[in-house]
Amino acid sequence: MSAALLRQIPPGLRPTSARWASSLAGGGGLMGWRPTPRPKRKLKRDDAPTTKQSANSGSSSDPSLFLKGEVLDHALDLKRCRPGTEVEVPYELTLTESLFEFWQSSFHSQDRVHTSTPFARALGLQDRAMPLSLVLFLTGAMSHEDAAKVQVGFGRCVYHWPVFAGDTVTKTFIVEKVRNTSDGNHSIINFKCSLINQRGRLCMSAEKRLLFEFPVPESNVTILAEESESSQLFRDHLLSKASVLRGMESHSLTPLRTGSLILHTLSRPITFSQSLQLASLARLTHERHFDVRKYDERTEVYVPAGLVLGLTVSASNRDLHEVLHEEIVNVSYIHHLHPGDVVSAFSYITGVDENLPGSLEEVSVRTVGVKNISLEDVDIPVELLTTDKTYTKNVDRICKSLCPKLTNKIVAVVDRKILRQSNRREVFLL
Question: Lower Cβ count inside 10 Å, N or C end of the chain?
Fold first, then answer.
């Protein structure tokens, strides 16, 4: 190849090395030759980007090439709600055996009405009844409560009719009462929650109290309970089987006496995976239960209130065994529970009614759930066991002044009535 041929190569592509130039001039091949790279042109600030550049950069001078998405808000606007407002719930859920078993694997229970099919059928039930804590969790689960800051508590939780695996349930929510907090910046709304099975029978009713981060117009109106909400068909059915129960050996382990304080030894946590799955099964949607991108899993994600109740009640189950039926008078949630926190409990027996058929008795009990603390050598204040003011501010005052070890450790205060087989031994005078 001649020097004339070399001169035909554009200047920018000519070899810069003298060795390569000599090789080309001498007729050598192009193997190993690399053209001199052209300097990159800097894009000026006012230069219009090309379509290819726009696809990579996410911006374009032509808005027709892109769409801007919108977020659908499914949360209810409760700022103008009044007592009597009904919240439409278009969902229905068929309860499977696997849901029942998953709950049993997460919350301890030894009560045969929930664990033994032959025992349940001997009492005239079609199968094992789902426990109250599970049914209440399903009753109070609201897919439209995204705007709520936190759940304050439950009240008047009545298990009217047993729920079985295979039932299909629907829910209704009615605003029962609205009021503002003392600071005027928040509101507490009471909802009347009802769970209804596929036959149209009311299975559970409960009052649910939620705290919202906005004030509402004050109202002195309160929706009164309907007659169906005071029915106790499930409890009455069990009482009618007192003679059957008398012929079946009582499995109750210890007698219960008014004024007794029981420190429960069963302690267990709920993991984030368990909380996530159970919240999903109940169709909860509040981001505080799920979104670990926004909230830290150990310190900011909250265990749903229904699961806090399940842990508190299950911690006491072995010592109060054998429970046939429960009614929750009130639940107050005091401090948040996070996944991995270990929950234990203690119970105070406030009353025992033995004037029931056969060997049955009704026990009024306050169970207090605590987190991440050993209850050994802790002196429990009597005021904590007997006060009617179980809201957070008063409970914190009692703990700080009388029992600092319990400060910020109480997660729930649960007042309930349980129907159980007693541990009494009949004494005959001859």
Answer: C
Tokens 């995204």 label which residue? 146
Give first-to-last CA distance, the chain, whole Å. Answer: 134
- Please name every residue paired with 92 in a beta bridge, in sequence order, or none if there are none: 170
Percent of the chain topping pLDDT 70 = 82
Strands 261-263 and 342-353, by their bridges, are: antiparallel
Say if CB 252 and CB 358 are below 8 A apart. no
- Pull the structure tokens for residue 217: 């117009």
The Cα 340–Cα 337 span in angstroms is: 9
Taking the C-alpha atoms of residue 253 and residue 319, their distance in angstroms, rounded to an integer, is 7
- pLDDT above 80 (res 329): yes
Q: Give the DSSP H or E segment for 103.
A: helix 97-106
Largest interatomic CA distance in the chain: 137
pTM exceeds 0.85, yes or no: no
What pLDDT, in 10s, does the model give residues 71-100? 887 666 777 788 888 887 878 999 999 999
Q: Could you tell me which of 230, 145, 146 has the C-alpha nearest to residue 191?
A: 145
Rounded CA separation 382/332 (Å): 18
**Residue 362 · residue 417 · CB < 8 Å:** yes
Q: Distances in Å between the alpha carbon of 173 and those of 55, 195, 203, 281?
A: 48, 9, 14, 19
Radius of gyration of the chain (CA): 34
Closest listed residue to residue 339, CA positions, set 371, 374, 293: 371
Alpha-carbon gap, residue 131 to 323, rounded angstroms: 10
Nearest to 420 by CA among 144, 201, 164, 235: 235
